[in-house]
Amino acid sequence: MGSNATVQVHLLPSLILKGALAGGVAVVVDVLRATSVMVRALASGSDAIIPCLEIEEAREVARALPSGSAVLAGERQGVAIDGFDFGNSPGDFTPEVCRGKTVVMTTTNGTRAILASLEADRVLIGAFANLRAIREELRNEARTVHIVCSGTDGLVSFEDTLLAGAIASHLDRVEGLSLGNDSARISSRAWLSVTFGNENLDEVLRTGRGGLRVSELGLGRDIVEAGAVDTIGIVPELRRDPLRIVRAGVTREGGIG
Q1: What is the pLDDT of residue 1?
Q2: Nearest alpha-carbon partner for 204 in 35, 86, 32, 56
Q3: Do residues 14 and 206 lie in contact, with contact meaning Cβ atoms separated by under 8 Å?
Q4: pLDDT range class, residue 196, cuts 50, 70, 90
Q5: Which CATH number fits the domain that encloses residue 33?
């Protein structure tokens, strides 16, 4: 790690100061559920994921792709979008659905956070499923690492804060990358408090505002899947020209199917 590099956490995209990400590496997290879906889809054989801000934009992007090659996925306020192939449930993105396909995706929070991070040199996608892989990808990173939490409807989310803390505390304690702002300190303390408890992670995730909403929608299985740690060994990375998310590399065996 570079001597001047730190790890910083941004609890919402709106809290990122202009120019703050320039020259650094961003890790975008949206535990419930967009980045959990993205990690799962690529592990299941998807060629790429194209993040879109708006519903009609996603439809247009999908129409422009070769016939039969696109999977439209997304939600608004947690609910699947009419006419889309899938919503935002990780378990839907099986090898049978994803293999050889491009997932075109728009969500309330996650895709917006990714597109808000474009000024970073690299943009990686993190979830609890690929936590170890993200940590390994960042092991020799000399630049400042920015963990960007998607939040929920413009408010800080419990689950994203915990994942940010899981990444930041590891970089601090194991890799010697100092915590660069108070949000990194807050999230690290939050994660360490959870790891000393006796509850399963999915039970903890259910208690936040995002977890309560997902539960109210009858999608409790999504929380279980999003709370499964180190089940996938890939790191998705945002590429440009054209804008798409692809596998940055396999750090260990971890594909699905």
Answers
A1: 47
A2: 32
A3: no
A4: confident
A5: 3.90.1560.10
Is residue 181 classed as helix, strand or coil in its secondary structure? coil
Number of domains into which the chain is organized? 1
Examine residue 255 and state whether it is found in any structural domain, yes or no. Answer: no
> Please, what is the Cα angle at 170 between 155 and 93, to 5 degrees?
60
Q: Which pTM does this prediction carry?
A: 0.95
> Please, where are the H alpha helices in 54-181?
55-64, 95-98, 110-115, 131-137, 158-173
Structure tokens at 82: 């009419």
In tens, the pLDDT along 104-124 reads 999 999 999 999 999 999 999
Contacts made by residues 64-67, CB under 8 angstroms, sequence distance 24+: 65/102, 65/104
pLDDT at 21 exceeding the cut of 80: yes
Q: How far apart are CA 152 and CA 132, in angstroms?
A: 25
For 230, the token pair is 């180190």
Q: Edge-to-edge strands of the sheet including 70-76?
A: 79-80, 70-76, 102-106, 48-51, 244-250, 234-239, 122-126, 25-29, 145-149, 6-10, 178-179
Rounded Cα–Cα distance for residues 215 and 253 (Å): 31
Nearest to 51 by CA among 217, 237, 256, 248: 237
Burial state string for 70-80 with b = 16 or more CB within 10 A and e = fewer than 16: bbbbbbeebeb
Q: Is residue 257 a part of any domain in this protein?
A: no
- The token duo for 124 is 């990686």
Residue 256 included in any domain: no
Distance from C-alpha of 62 to C-alpha of 73, rounded to nearest angstrom? 10
Residues in the chain, how many?
257
Measured at the CA of 42, the angle between CA 36 and CA 45, to 5 degrees, comes to 140
